[in-house]
Amino acid sequence: SQKIEQNSEALNIQEGKTATLTCNYTNYSPAYLQWYRQDPGRGPVFLLLIRENEKEKRKERLKVTFDTTLKQSLFHITASQPADSATYLCAISRYSSASKIIFGSGTRLSIRP
Amino acid sequence: DARVTQTPRHKVTEMGQEVTMRCQPILGHNTVFWYRQTMMQGLELLAYFRNRAPLDDSGMPKDRFSAEMPDATLATLKIQPSEPRDSAVYFCASAPTSLDGDTEAFFGQGTRLTVV
Question: Do A89 and B95 touch (CB under 8 A)?
C-alpha cells in the first residue's frame, strides 16, 4: 500500500533561519503533491501544490521541490518566524489534486525567537 | 467567507451508541472527503465522494461506519455501534473541480469524538 513518511520528530529552528521539511513516499506515483499547514485544534490549510512534471515551486517565503526519481519532496520556509510554528503535512494524489488525497503524519515545526 | 462547516464540534458518547457527524461542504464544491486523525495514525482517508457518488470508501470499517451524501449540501458519517477505538478527530474537506487538475482541499474544523 502507499506510504508517506515525514520526519516524526519535531524540528526546532532559530528565527530567521531556513526550515527544511522532508516528505518521502513509496509504492506510489503521484501526479500531484501538496503541502498543508495545521495548527492545534484546527483543520489543515492548503499551502502549495506541485505537479510531477515540475521540479520546484515558490510562493513568497515557501519553496517546494519534487523529485519523482528519489520519490521525495522538500519543503522550505526561508526567513522563518515564530508564527510559522505549526505541523506541516505532505499529501499526494494521482489523477488530480482533488482525487484520492493521502496524507503523511506531519512534522511539527517550532521556530524560537 | 466560504467554509466547510462540521457539526457537532465535540461529541462524547458511550460505547455502543450511534454517532452521526455532519458536514456542509463549500457551495459549488463537488468532491467531499472524510478523514480521521489520531496521534498514532495521523490523517487517514475514510471515504470520498464526487458529485455525491462514493468513489472510494476502502479506508472505512464497513461493519460499523457508513458515509452518505443525501444532497449536495450535506455529507454524513455515521458510526453504529461506536467503540472507544473510534475516539479521534473527524475532518470533512471539500474541493472544487479544476480543468487542469490543480485544486486544493478545504477542511472543516473537525468533530472531536470521544467514546467512553
Answer: no
